[in-house]
Amino acid sequence: EIVLTQSPGTLSLSPGERATLSCRASQSVSSNFLAWHQQKPGQAPRLLIYAASSRATGIPDRFSGSGSGTDFTLTISRLEPEDFAVYYCQQYGSSPFTFGPGTKVDIK
Amino acid sequence: QVQLVQSGAEVKKPGASVKVSCKASGYGFTNYGITWVRQAPGQGPEWMGWISAYNGNTNYAQMLQGRVTMTTDTSASTAYMELRSLRSDDTAVYYCARGGGSLMPDYWGQGTLVTVSS
Predict the structure, then answer these.
(1) Judging by beta carbons within 10 Å of its beta carbon (0-12, 13-18, 19+), is residue B98 exposed, middle or buried?
(2) Chain B interface, best mutation among A47, A86, A98, by max B CB count within 10 A
(3) Does A105 reach chain B within 8 Å, measured CB to CB?
(4) If phi over 0 gives left and psi between -120 and 50 gives alpha, with beta otherwise, what is residue B90?
(5) pLDDT tens-digit profile of A72-101?
């Protein structure tokens, strides 16, 4: 089973700042099948990025993903008020398709 | 537009079973799988497994083997997840999502709260 570790656990930033979130896998993610999901309180997760760097339909270009193998990054170039949420990485290259523990981005 | 609409909240006693439905619309149901994910209160998501809506093949998380069954009714574009022998630590919001296998979960249902309590 691939274990995903996300850092930091919490990121306190102001609107307009840049956010950099990390996801590290315990072994290489097959075909870089790594997704990032955003979740707000009381809501279902929402897919942001798939295949490490492809934006999902309707996702603003301030969200970008990068990385390969075992190290992946989600970058939010300029935080908007609606971006304060929890972000989870998930690998879907090897069963079981595990999730990371999440990074909470909150308002400083 | 793609929509996944799940059945309503359930309260069950330990040892009982629950069956959650997920009705899909806005796309060719048999062209995608359905993934099931649960989220316990205050915790991150936990992948439960997925089912191919094309041929019914399933892939379950090892920790749930023997207690979970995922099925589909292609005539109704609906997927089902049944969990048996419920325990208190099965209390969670259960989500279905389109996708599975090499496809990421891209559209999610609204979630179904299952509470297991005596």
Answers:
(1) buried
(2) A47
(3) no
(4) alpha
(5) 999 999 999 999 999 999 999 999 999 999
